[in-house]
Design a protein that fits this description.
The structure holds two protein chains of two kinds. In chain A, 68% of the residues lie in helices and 3% in strands. Chain A is mainly α. Chain A has a domain of 217 residues: MetI-like fold (Orthogonal Bundle), CATH 1.10.3720.10. A two-stranded antiparallel sheet of chain A has the order 1-2. In chain A, helix 3 packs antiparallel against helix 10 and helix 8 runs antiparallel to helix 9. The relative contact order of chain A is 0.10. The C terminus of chain A is likely disordered. By secondary structure, chain B is of the alpha/beta class. Chain B is built from nine helices and twelve strands. In chain B, the strands form three sheets. A six-stranded mixed beta sheet of chain B has the order 8-9-10-3-11-12, sandwiched between helices. The chains are: A mainly alpha, B alpha/beta. At the A-B interface, helix 8 and helix 9 of A face helix 2 and helix 3 of B. Chain A: Keywords: Amino-acid transport, Cell membrane, Membrane, Transmembrane, Transmembrane helix, Transport.
């Protein structure tokens, strides 16, 4: 250690001499033993759990395999998807209308929208669904006519709505109340100067909302809306109380028949996880689209990131193969 | 003398108990540049915003090129115009904001196309040709496809000026166009405004840039406490102010 140090200097100087070549000094990364120990402990737990999943006979993976793609289940998944899609689209449409009612200058529209949101956020979804299921008890016939006046056309409420219809209505009305607040939050997050600039340019009012305000509001709306839609997808399982053949109901029917509760719950779980994952991926790309102009350089997509990672890996491998020599200035490593 | 382009008569405006404008009269002739100076809170920005009806007036009226803004006259009654008609009137009045207010989710070119296409129903091709010409005029022809946030403040304000010009307005209003800019970026924006002044654009500019006022203004208006205290050619108002309040203000800023 002290061989190179002259006798006049008792310890090596802390700063390399000014004449030293900076490239000649090697940086030694700090070690993190606690991190390694933590990682090892967690990996053991994960391995234990995975082993249990694979070997515990209670999971009955064979039964899972028999049912996960069976016709009954796939059809039930389709019903779940339909319920989610209808309730999402209709719920957010109605929610957007309610949001703009709350933001309007008319006290009547404001109050109506506020009351709607208050009511539908106050009633548990399951209670509401049973209500709609029993709609025919409330209104036997539904018709079109003059309010408080004669009715021109009417129909039996049961035959018009049906069970699926009642479920969609229930989910939609519930969803709309939450969607309204999400959309309103998004609109409020847009700088008021944007609306003002659009007004100063004489851009027509509807166009101001559609082209200027909503696209920017989407940035704030999407993360929460993604939450809501995923919540809704899983929330459709509540519809089982109306005996609609969606995923959770159908799974219950099957295990009621054959008693294989755990593997069939696994079937439902697997489908819910798969659908939620697909929604999450979709959300990522939709968010990216609405982020245009928000950042100076948009972040890379996972695909781009994966490609970059592989490229870096290859580059690192190439460097390792190369003999350790001092870098030539301007020279390329192979 | 040119024709009167902007005529402000006895305009009052309050925000709740706060009286912001207390009877303002102002005349701007076509092709002239009017610079409004005054301490903050003097009502100069509010006055500018009443001219394109972003703020409604409580009493008095404003006309541009002989047309009442925001109202229709029937005898001695003023009927408030519907929003649609106000929006149509605004296409004749360009407005440049202190904070630019460019649409961040649209490219520079789309920022310039939006109003001509949606408000004036210009064909897109024609509007695009105009937009590119205007971008060239403010020295940003190469930024057409950039997003506003990729530009510097000075560049953004120049785009905002081009966006206002895209409607070919009769008058351009500037609300402290350089107040949000770093000092070294102020010049490039003022240069664009000076260039517009040379080509005979009617403009009203609210600003704190006294040097700019001296160089470009045909008329300097000094406002304080919601009224016009003094107005006239820059040499008169800036170098030989008659009122004590004007002198006090100029002593602070010069």
């Amino acid at each position: 250690m002290t061989t190179a140090a002259p006798d006049t200097a008792p310890a090596a100087p802390r700063v390399p001499p000014a004449t030293a070549d900076p490239a000649a000094f090697k940086v030694v990364p700090a070690r993190h033993p606690a991190r390694w120990a933590g990682a090892a402990a967690v990996l053991v737990l994960v391995a234990q759990f995975t082993h249990g999943l694979a070997t515990n006979p209670v999971w009955e993976w064979r039964v899972f395999g028999d049912y996960v793609l069976s016709e009954t289940i796939v059809q039930a998944v389709w019903v779940t998807l339909q319920l989610t899609a209808y309730a999402t689209v209709l719920g957010f449409l109605l929610g957007t209308v309610l949001a703009f009612m709350r933001l309007s200058h008319s006290p009547v529209l404001q109050t109506v929208a506020w009351t709607y949101i208050w009511v539908f956020r106050s009633i548990p979804m399951i209670v509401q669904l049973v209500f709609w299921f029993n709609l025919s008890a409330l209104y036997e016939r539904l018709g079109i006519g003059i309010p408080f006046g004669p009715v021109f056309w009417s129909v039996d409420s049961d035959s018009l709505i049906g069970t699926i219809g009642a479920a969609v209505i229930g989910l939609t009305l519930h969803q709309a109340a939450y969607a309204a607040e999400i959309v309103r939050g998004g609109v409020l997050s847009v700088d008021s100067g944007q609306r003002e600039a659009a007004a100063a340019l004489g851009i027509p009012r509807l166009r101001q909302i559609r082209r200027i305000v909503l696209p920017q509001a989407m940035r704030a709306i999407l993360p929460t809306a993604g939450n809501e839609i995923i919540g809704l997808l899983k929330g459709t399982s509540v519809v089982y109380v109306m005996a609609i053949g969606e995923l959770f109901y159908q799974v219950q029917v099957v295990y009621g028949r054959n008693g294989r509760v755990i593997p069939l719950l696994l079937v439902a779980t697997a489908w819910y996880v798969l659908l939620t994952s697909l929604l999450s991926v979709a959300q990522y790309y939709v968010e990216r689209r609405y982020a245009r102009g928000a950042d100076r350089t948009p972040p890379p997509t996972p695909l781009q990131r994966a490609r970059r990672f592989l490229r870096d890996l290859r580059a690192a491998a190439a460097r390792r193969e190369a003999p350790v020599t001092a870098l030539h200035p301007g020279g390329e490593s192979r | 003398m040119n024709d009167v382009m902007v005529d402000v008569r006895g305009v009052h405006k309050s925000f709740g108990p706060l009286q912001v404008l207390r009877g303002v009269d102002l005349t701007v002739r076509a092709g002239e540049v009017t610079v409004i100076l005054g301490p903050s809170g003097s009502g100069k920005s509010t006055l500018l915003r009443t001219i394109n009806h972003l703020e409604k007036v409580d009493s008095g009226w404003i006309s541009i090129d002989g047309e009442l803004i925001g109202y229709r006259r029937a005898g001695n009654k003023l009927h408030e115009l519907k929003e649609r008609d106000v929006l149509k009137q605004r296409t004749h009045i360009g407005f440049v904001f202190q904070n630019f207010n460019l649409f961040p989710h649209l490219t520079v070119l789309d920022n310039l196309l939006e109003a001509p296409v949606s408000a004036l129903r210009r064909p897109k091709k024609e509007a695009e040709a105009t937009a590119r010409r205007l971008l060239d005029r403010v020295g940003l022809a190469d930024k057409a496809d950039a997003y506003p946030r990729q530009l510097s403040g000075g560049q953004q304000q120049r785009v905002a000026i081009a966006r206002a010009l895209a409607l070919e307005p009769k008058v351009l209003l500037f609300d402290e166009p350089t107040s949000a800019l770093d000092p070294e970026l102020v010049g490039e924006v003022l240069d664009v405004i000076k260039d517009l002044a040379r080509t005979g654009t009617t403009m009203i500019v609210v600003t704190h840039e006294i040097g700019f006022a001296r160089e470009v203004a045909d008329t300097v208006v000094f406002m304080d406490d919601g009224t016009v205290v003094e107005q006239g050619p820059p040499a008169a108002v800036l170098d030989d102010p008659q009122r004590e309040r004007t002198r006090a203000f100029l002593a602070k800023v010069l």
